[in-house]
Amino acid sequence: MQATLPPGPRLPSLLQTIGWWNRPTVYVERLRARYGPRFTMRLLGQLPAVILSDPDDLREVFMAPPDVLHPGEGARILAPIVGPHSLILLDEAPHLEQRKLMLPAFHGERMQRLTGLMTELTDRELDSWPIDEPVALHERLQQLTMEIILRAVFGLDEGARLNSLRDRLTSILSFGDSPLSLLPPAQRLLAGRGRFGRFEEDKAQVDSELFALMADRRREGGERDDVLAMLLAAEHDDGSPMSDEEIRDELVTALVAGHETTASSLAFAFEQLARRPEVLERLAADAATDDDRYLDATINEVLRLRPVLPNAEPRLVKQEVTIGGWTYPPNVVLIASAALVHHDPKIYPEPHAFRPERFLDTKPGTYTWIPFGGGRRRCIGASFALLEMRIVLRAAAERFTVSAAGPPPRPRRRMITITPGDGALVRLGRRERPAARAAVQDHALNV
Ligand code: HEM
Asked: Over the stretch 20-75, which tens digit does the pLDDT of each residue have?
């Protein structure tokens, strides 16, 4: 057992921070080549962070008891946006309690009921995409994933309330994009009075609209398939319902955690498909059948090659813990690196090649494929995101051919995710006739 931290770069913190920020995956791969599967980084103004990528270390991190490692504390920066009850900010018993309330709403089988709504919104969006000209898909995918969350999670129907919440929430999310939002409140007020005032105003308006929505839904009763319906029906252990504030915080958390992540993952899917026409052709052929195995393998491979959150939530050590033979004291942060484990040539030969076949007959490993993190903090929206990606990619493969409209882009950080640096710039062509419908018609002609 060793008492010190694993060795890592000795560069000044500022330079390490610049590398970490600007070249999020390339820089850590370089460090792993030099220091091995675990190394310590010192980022500006942060506690020492040990980057881990050995699958055994990842298993130990994900399985550590809740009072030993605290992911929630590491996400404090999101508090002004998501609110104090947010699942993402909690640890130990409060986390477990909130997660138990939310799990049924995000269960895979329950998600299937959202298929019709997701398909309708996807068809509408994809039908508006321009053909035969360069188009940056990322922005459009952001709009689509936002709409899907507002309708399927917030349970909003079309109308004035949906429009108003869409505007206000977009404005709130763009506030998080500004470095100003990272300042403590006093400096923030001085530095950006106008912007901060707008943020507070938007938040107050969102609260009042959401509380009115919940009151309406409680009054109306009735059966609905959206996540809000499940949260309104959820009960604490003592039988009390979730408060309006709890529900608001979890809805906004789903938006923050679920809309840019899914949009960026889809953007990378298009980036890859544009350069691998044979993959898209196979997806188009399968779209006419019920066989989703290649589609699922493609999605798993996109999430492996380009994990949009390159790390799981950082885990703050609260009590001394031994992982992979190293003993970590309190006030060190452990970071499970998806980018590193996904690009380990011992686990994935030719790790930078896009090969859906890797996952055709092999299920992703719990500790070697971690785009959704792991353990009791694993992404609660994973089934939701996978369903959405399946629907969007199937609909796109049916309608379009996709080709590159520029050189392969460098991945770059956006607000919370890594995205294709060119905004997923592609050129779409229209297929002769949608493969699925063609198959149905062919079948009709044969009988
Ligand atoms: C492709 C899309 C997505 C990716 C790549 C992704 C990835 C992640 C990751 C890496 C974590 C941290 C897990 C950990 O630290 O172990 C996480 C947590 C979380 N995600 Fe996702 N996510 C996606 C979509 C969604 C969606 C659609 C929702 C909700 C509708 C969502 C809601 C959440 C929540 C609430 C948490 C916090 C869970 C907790 O702390 O217990 N995510 N996600």
From this structure: 888 888 999 999 999 999 999 999 989 999 999 999 999 999 999 999 999 999 88
3-state SS assignment for residue 400: strand
Helix boundaries (H) for 274-337 = 277-287, 293-305
Q: Is 47 exposed, middle or buried (0-12, 13-18, 19+ CB in 10 A)?
A: middle
Q: DSSP for 90-152?
A: --HHHHHHHHHHHGGGG-HHHHHTTHHHHHHHHHHHHTTS-SSSEEEHHHHHHHHHHHHHHHH
- Pocket, ligand 1, Cβ cutoff 6 A: 71, 87-88, 99, 153, 253-254, 257-258, 261-262, 265, 308-309, 312-313, 371-374, 377-381, 384-385
What's the CA-to-centroid distance between 51 and ligand 1, angstroms?
20
What's the length of the chain?
Answer: 447
Greatest CA span in the chain, whole angstroms? 75
Fold of 13-155+224-446: Cytochrome p450 (1.10.630)
pTM (2 decimals)? Answer: 0.93
Confidence of residue 102 (pLDDT cuts 50, 70, 90): very high
Residue 427, Cβ neighbours under 10 Å: how many? 18
Mutate to test the pocket of ligand 1, among 69, 250, 379, 388 (most ligand atoms within 8 A of CB): 379
The DSSP bridge pattern shows strands 400-404 and 69-70 to be unpaired
Give the confidence band of 221 by pLDDT, cuts at 50, 70, 90.
confident
Task: Provide the 8-state DSSP code for 337.
Answer: B
- 330-352, pLDDT tens digit by residue? 999 999 999 999 999 999 999 99
